[in-house]
Amino acid sequence: MAVALFDTDTPLRPLRAEIAQAMAAVVESGRFILGPKVGAFETDFAAYLGARHAIGVANGTDALTIALRTLGVGPGDDVVVPSFTFYASAEAIAPTGARPVFCDVDLQTGCVTAETVKAALTPSTKAVIAVHLFGNVAPVAEIAALGVPVVEDAAQSAGTRTDTGRPGTLGTIATFSFFPSKNLGCFGDGGAITTDDDDIAELVRMLRFHGSRDKVTYEHVGYNSRLDELQAAILGVQLPHLDAWAAGRRAAGAHYEEAGLGDLVALPAAAAGAEPAWHLYVVRHERADELAAGLAAREIGHKAYYRTPVHRQPAMRDVAAGVDLAVTDEFARTHLALPMSPVLSAAQAAEVVAAVRASLG
Ligand SMILES: Cc1ncc(COP(=O)(O)O)c(C=O)c1O
Hints:
binds pyridoxal-5'-phosphate, about 35% helix, seven-stranded mixed sheet, 13 helices, 11 strands, two-stranded antiparallel sheet, single chain, alpha/beta
């Protein structure tokens, strides 16, 4: 039995008619940019997270750039960011004029820690981007205690819970991506910024619209970065189902454990106090490439997401010169994502585990 890396189709199937209706209503309304659907989704997403403000933007990359701008990050500043993450986490720093300073991650959780961030602080550090990688949670309060504002990159952690609140409410400001394969995905590009700070929220609203509050006076050089009405309508239909999907992702992780996956490979570990909605289920093994080849032969979906970590990417050569991140390099070399979705069954998990066992001989 083949098992796909993702299943974005099955969870959406029962919602197709409702989504089509919501999209038709937008077309009928003739309002496509910054209309009532975006407003409603912003209100609902903020309420879901327990944040004071949620502001829709065009994608998760812009969300990071705009979030950094609201903290005053600019030329001459440093921003600490992990290297073991999607490239955009660091790429989004460049448009502010600041310099990314790469830090290491924890081998168990895949996330930055107060220790790894502390080792990367410089006198010019203006902010830290704490990536909640794979749906897990970085220790934001401990990092903030170092005295630097934290931007949560929550692109991969919609649906995750912690005993001190959800990702998106743990730092000064947070960013989300609604890329279609994300835990909460739209039918194109989309993103959001969340914060409890009224002044920051007001600045985000201006920056997403060319630095203006009224389309008459332009107070900042901003961005054209809006979530559109169609995407907001689609997200609005899905949001009430996010917790059930998150529970499905956690159940899939439990199926893997029950099927004995932990005897074969190193499993992802939930951060203390966190219940991750696993976006990607990423395991580690010394022979990760051999495992990948074995899974390919058995039609089991898999992917090495970050084999070349960000600090070793060609575009980062200058800013990352001399950077040495031992855990990042080990993670990059040994990780492999296995199939994960809200509907991954015990039978599918058992199939994957059998294929892992056979592949590793
Ligand atoms: C950790 C992380 N940060 C940022 C992004 C950027 O989001 P987007 O693709 O919506 O720009 C993504 C996903 O693509 C991501 O996984």
